[in-house]
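Marked as duplicate of an earlier ticket. Keeping the data here for the record.
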Amino acid sequence: MRRFSVVAPAGVLALAIGLAAYSLSSPARSLPDPAVDIPLATTAGSRTAVLAGGCFWGVEGVFEHVRGVTGVVSGYSGGTAETARYEQVSSGRTGHAEAVRIAYDPAQISYGQLLKVFFAVAHDPTQRNRQGPDTGPQYRSAIFYADAEQKRVAEAYIAQLQKARAFPRPIVTELVPLEAFHAAEAYHQDYVVRNPAQPYIVVNDLPKIDALKRQLPALYTGK
C-alpha cells in the first residue's frame, strides 16, 4: 500500500530513501514516435483516453502537464460500479485498476502521442501487477481502448516498442475494451497539485513530471 499521511521527521528521510530504490529502478526512457497513429484533427474537439499505470496520482499528475490535454480524472476501470470504491479496489479483488480518464483536443495531440507519454514517463510497462512500491492487480498497466482506432494504434505501438527492444524486459500492458470508467473519490483528484511536499509524491511522481519536461518538451506545458 502506498498511502500514508503523517510521518515523523526522522521517518520521512528513511521512507524517501526506501521509495527511491523503487523509482530509480524504472527510469524514464526516450521512445520513438508511434509508426501507426490517428492523424491530428483539422478542427478542435474533445476525445478521451483511459489508461492505467499504477497509482493514479502520478499518472494524473503527468497528463495534467501534457499539451493538448484539457482535463484528467482519477478513477477505476475493469470492475463493476458497485465495487468502484477506494477501500474495495485496494483489496485487489474487484477487477478494477486505478486508471485515469484523459480528455484531449485531437487537433493538438494524437492518441499515439498520449501513448508515448504513457510508456515513456508515466509508468513502467514491464512491471506486472505493480508499480514501484505499490503491489496488486489494481496497480496493473492497462490501456482501456474505446474503439477500433484506439485498439489499432495501441497494438501497433506495443509491437513497435517490443521489436525495438525499447525496454529491458517484455511489456506486460493489458489491452482491453473500455466498458466503464468510474471517477474516484474527490480527495484523490488533483492529488499531486494539492500535496506536492508529501514524500511519496516527491519520490515517485514529481520525477515523472520532470522527465516529461526534459524528454518531451514539445508536449510539456507548465500549467
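See parent ticket for discussion. Helices lie at 9-23, 56-63, 86-89, 111-122, 148-163, 191-194, 199-215.
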